[in-house]
Here is the input.
Amino acid sequence: MPIYLARMEIRDRIIEEATSQFFKYGIRNITMDEMAASVGISKRTLYETFKDKTELVSTCLAALEQKHDKINYQIISGSANVIEAMFVLMKQGIKMMNSVNPVFFFDLKKYYPEIWQSLHKEHKKKSCQMTYTMLRKGLNEGLYRKGINIEIIAKLFHEQMNLVSDETIFPSDKFDHGEVFQNIMINFTRGIATKRGIEIIDEIIE
Here is the structure.
């Protein structure tokens, strides 16, 4: 195997294992020594691949975002209608939430604020674009009510989504964030749906 391919393989293994470890235990609780041992490589090889933990965290999140973009595209393009796509995306979101230790987000915000801000800004931009696309698609399919203001609806949706991770409103020791997310999604979608749209929602839920 050519050297550059071997290095890429090692890099991918590190990213996959680091993402898994960070999600499970949080970022601060995993040292670079432990990461190297977990991947089965030397500490030197780890630092030759990533100069420090900050670069590793940033790379893991960028790779994760790219992976989710691909999955979202496949879901939207492969669904029968926009409401079906929304519910599949909802299930993906809940699965993601349930697989991540809340400590991960706490560590990211506290110890890597620049990465968090950059990630949040980029994610918000992409999420808004996707929401606009989904709303227009729902209108064209006759599943969302005519006359809704897409810009207002999109902003309302994202503000409600921000509530899911707001510990002051839904503390993780009292609320299941996946359940909060599901309640917001279902009620929000029903609120803008036509009669046919509501019928599809009820069929999916049942």
About this structure: The radius of gyration is 20 Å. Residues 1 and 14 are 18 Å apart (CA to CA). DSSP finds ten helices and no strands in the chain.
